[in-house]
Hints:
Layout: H1 2-43, H2 46-50, H3 56-61, H4 66-73, E1 75-82, E2 86-89, E3 92-103, E4 109-121, E5 126-129
Antiparallel strand pairs: 1-3, 2-3, 3-4, 4-5
Amino acid sequence: MRRLIVLLAAFPFALAGCATIASSNKDKARDMTLENYAATLRFGGGFPAAWQFVDPKMRAAHPLDGKAKARYDSVEVASYQTDGPVATDDNTIQQIAQITLVVRSSQTSYDIVDHEIWHWDETGKHWWLESGLPDITPPQ
């Protein structure tokens, strides 16, 4: 009987430990996804390759047409810096990215600000960029 009481008393702590492990794995997945996204923009194919980070529902609803692909192909990411992720709820984070772009044809550069929204897909255990690729229109 005493063992049963000890086991029942320890049960909530065991569940809390499982939640902590799950949260830790989710945080690791977030950090890895954000690092991979930044590296993809800078060194791994730019915006066309970063398209794979966009939520599949968003990609299906708003596919990149030829004109958009050509615009993204016309620039190169020279710098990508963020203020770091801020949780807005358990499954959503936001971050602001300062991006310096270089126009391939003229080698001129300009800066944009991207307000990213990332969402955790509990089923797929994956973070997706809900806000889509940034608007790369040069500022006026």
